[in-house]
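Margin note from the TA: students keep mixing up input and output lines. Inputs are the sequences; the output is the structure of the whole complex. Example:
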Amino acid sequence: MAASVLKKVVIEKINEVAAVLMQKGTLIAPVKEEAGANFREIKDPKDIYLDYYNSILSPKMVFFPQMEDFVKYQLAKPKADAKIVEMNLKPAFLFGVRPCDVKSFEILDKHFYASGIIDTYWKARRDNTTIIGYAFDLDKPVDSADFYNTLGIGAADPEGSDIFIVKKDKELLLKGITKKGEALLGELSMLEKADAKDEKYFTDYVKKGKEKKTRFMKVDDKAVAKKYEDIFENNEYWTKMSDACLSCGVCTFVCPTCYCFDICDETIFGKGTRRRIWDACMFTDFTLETSGHNPRTKVSQRLRQKVCHKYSFSVRKYDVISCVGCGRCTRSCPVNIDIYSMVEEATKL
Amino acid sequence: MTNFKQIEENLKKEAKKLLEAGSVAVVLAYTKGADEKHPQPFAAKKADDVANIIFNEYCNHNLARYIVRYAPGTKIAVAVKAADSRAVVVLIQEEKIKRENLILLGIPVSGMKNQKTGEIIDEKTTGGLTNPVVYDVLLGEEIHTGKPVSPYTVLEQYEKMDKDARFAFWKAQFDKCIRCYACRKACPMCYCDPCFIDQTKPRWADKSPQSHGNLMYHLTRFQHLAGRCIDCGECTRACPVDIPLYLFHKKVAKDCEEMFKQAAGMKIEDKLVMVDFRVEDSDKILE
């Protein structure tokens, strides 16, 4: 592979980069909010918050927003009056995504795109967006909930990003990973050319990222998938795991690989919208059928669905564990349920 | 106060005794989650499970939340701090559980901490109440050192705001809501099945996370908890986007207390203010 471009910029000048990206289209980057960082559209470059660990809500919401309007209609009006909601996309730049989250896009691609059933909304946004990855700060401690190493992801893996950034003291080093990324770097005139020392720093950083340790256990995709098939009816295990579970939707809503949604018609004062919104297998009404029958009435059944979907069904269907070890579910769980411990316990059975 | 380790030992001892004698089917307590700093509610069902019980300053979760999960008639022992005990009282008043089916292992405790920030949350929980209001066995010495605080002092700054400013404050807060429903699921008083927000005939509010639906959900929930909220703060602790739900609940609780001269979940003999009628009751609510 030909050596790709490496550029650099002092951190204070990130505002200038942001200003150019905002001119070119939509810039989405981490912003500091009351509860922590989240990815939001940037209106003022000063809002960009680079000193974050990871966002509370995963960046999947950029491609798969919690609410997506499809059709607007009016009650008691002819069908022909209904209007499809246009996406009106501008080129988007998703800035500052951590390597484990970049990996999650690849996993969701398998579902929303590579499966052959193409979700046009997902695909349009994906095709339209340049992903600017950002390595974890290797000088800072790893959060105790993280376990991305277990899923084979390093703290500074550039794969999957169009441009990948590592921090070097007061500078950011930006490397073009894909053609799209390289082209964009070429258009950002305020960037300086990096020297050989920077090149070495970047390469070493990526290598050192591999050595940054999160929680780790050896997980073989096929073996863990088989394990969960075997213990699917092990009520003792599932009851024990779910005794504390509140069956709320936090874990699925913050998860970068959860993709379940509900399509509903919402009408207010005669004006209606058909839209999709995030749904969660942890909700009681997720499986409620029109007849009134609900095949999953117990918390244990719902938790089993969530864990098996990620660690078993996804392996069978898409050949990948649908989890990136970002630790969000563990951090956000009101009762500290930890999927890593759950899988660890299952492998011991 | 009795130290955490000692309370943990006492809790283990009592739990073991109860499970070995078969006097309860389950003991609701805490165990370690990913680590000890992240404890998890725990249902000990066998004497062997008892070894996994822990108790430390991060064991905030209101265990009364889990009582309604067990079939009516199940004998349950619950480790109750002040907040949990008040929730149990409301559940008994509402006939969700019979007093004789419960063994309450009371924990007098102060110095409980927020797991995310490390901040001491005593004064933010049940107005600084340290001793359980009802128990069968006490797992430590009662605490009488702390000076009582009003749970409503924190409201002053919001009550000073004018109507528009207050509405703007709450609208901004509810706009953050992602409708994960952690608040209602963590709430020991939210046991409706189905919850009004999940009903489809009629659907009371939109499912999508927008201002009007979020308002409908939260305001209705606040009302449903009038005279029932025991101020444990679990809704707020569970919220992933930090909506200060406890403030609204406190406001409703304060109004209830002023109008009906009774705080929720203090005495089993009390009648729920929204169920009971007394001639001298305030009519302020109708004005």
